[in-house]
Structures are given as C-alpha cells and as structure tokens.
Predict the 3D structure of the following.
Amino acid sequence: MKDTGTAQRIELGRFIVADPKICHGKPTYKGTRIMVWQILEALADGESVAQLVKGWGGRVSREAILETIRLAGASLLNGQGRLRHRRVTRLAA
C-alpha cells in the first residue's frame, strides 16, 4: 500500500478523537471543536466535572470528562501505577 502522506482520524476513546481536519489534529471531543487540553487545564485549575459540563453547555458530558482523566492517567502511568518508561532522546546542541 502506498503512503500518501495524509494523516488519518484516530479514535482515542469513545468520546475523544484526533482528526487532522479538526483543530490541526489536536484531540477534541467528537462532534465539537472543544479541545481536550482545555478540559484538562480547567480541571487542573480546580473546576469540577459538574462545572465543566455546565460551562460547556452539556457539549462535553460527564462521561467524556471522566474518559479524559482515564486516558491522561494511562498515558502517564502503567497498570501498576508506576511511571511509564519512555525513551528520552536529546537533540545534539
């Protein structure tokens, strides 16, 4: 199969997608242009899940926000709660 160089839509979960045609491929909630980083930043600032659901007019559901938290945790921690090992490469100065 020939690689055409076009990026594909990636389903990251039931509610989250990364589509190169939407917000430059940044993860968003399906059917919206609301980016996952916006929800994560609001959670980090102390907003509750209920506040976020209300603040976004219900366009991001409680279940979608909980999935966001699970996916963020899974990207950081393995199944035993330890940091995932990632190969870190440094660019030559």
Remarks:
- The first helix runs from residue 36 to 44.
- Residues 37 and 56 are 14 Å apart (CA to CA).
- DSSP finds three helices and three strands in the chain.
- The helical segments are 36-44, 49-55, 62-76.
